[in-house]
Amino acid sequence: MSITSDLLRGHTDTIILRLLLNRDSYGYEINKYISEKTDGAYELKEATLYSAFRRLEENGSISSYWGDETTGARRRYYSITRQGRAVYEQNKTDWEEAKTILDELIKEG
Amino acid sequence: MSITSDLLRGHTDTIILRLLLNRDSYGYEINKYISEKTDGAYELKEATLYSAFRRLEENGSISSYWGDETTGARRRYYSITRQGRAVYEQNKTDWEEAKTILDELIKEG
DNA sequence: TGATATACCTTGACAGACATAGTAACTCGT
DNA sequence: ACGAGTTACTATGTCTGTCAAGGTATATCA
User: Fold this and answer.
1) Gap between the terminal Cα atoms of chain B
2) Are B38 and A108 an interchain contact pair (Cβ–Cβ within 8 Å)?
3) Which of A71, A23, A5 is nearest to B98 (CA)?
4) Does the beta carbon of B108 lie under 8 angstroms from any beta carbon of chain A?
5) What is the CATH number of the domain that holds A81?
6) Domain count of chain A?
7) Does A15 reach chain B within 8 Å, measured CB to CB?
8) What is the per-residue pLDDT across B28-76, written as a single tens digit (0 to 9) for each?
9) What is the ipTM of this complex?
10) Do the Cβ atoms of A78 and B10 come closer than 8 Å?
11) Less crowded by CB within 10 Å, the N or C end of chain A?
């Protein structure tokens, strides 16, 4: 069973920022992590992920740099910025509120 | 405090179907109900609501008829169909899964 | 040599939510 | 009787996030 990203549309940024709270990471790793963490139930498409990176970098939530891999394919690493942490906190709050609202609206009885 | 509909994007149909489970209703009433039930925290824009009606009617989840108001503005009433009930059940399940997944992905510690 | 995995990027299409505008009938205060 | 506000629905075009589809390049392993 797997859900479409459209059901969590708008929350991709939050997921990425959350992961970057722990440590810098790069696209491929983040994608694998999400897939594995959810047992394949949720998968971000590459285009979605990389366009999220662009958006987040443009609005100052993350910064990026090329890794210095001496072997294998090059990797672009992303760091969460101070501003990104604030955005993450706000997004988390918004998500809690969204959950409450939808649950309230569709609860039965 | 209020959230944008984009945070619940894709769940508008579910909200509408849920309300129609109780009884037939019409656009303006549904919109007011949502707004009041959430103390104004969540409001569907008219364009969003009416385009959802179109979508739901096209895919057979609801049917509609003009009310026979003898006074006041005309009202178009909507009924949930048998198929709509099935869609609703599926959407509810999907929402539960989406919640679980996002909570898992952004939980800290 | 070819398949698979790692790793990133670009382009264009699509769908849902939105802003904005319009139509029309009723209600209420002055 | 007038204007403002409420009720109630509709149409058009824009924006944004996700996606499908395609591409580049390196390393590993059969």
Assistant:
1) 28
2) no
3) A5
4) yes
5) 1.10.10.10
6) 1
7) yes
8) 999 999 999 999 999 999 999 999 999 999 999 999 999 987 777 889 9
9) 0.90
10) no
11) C
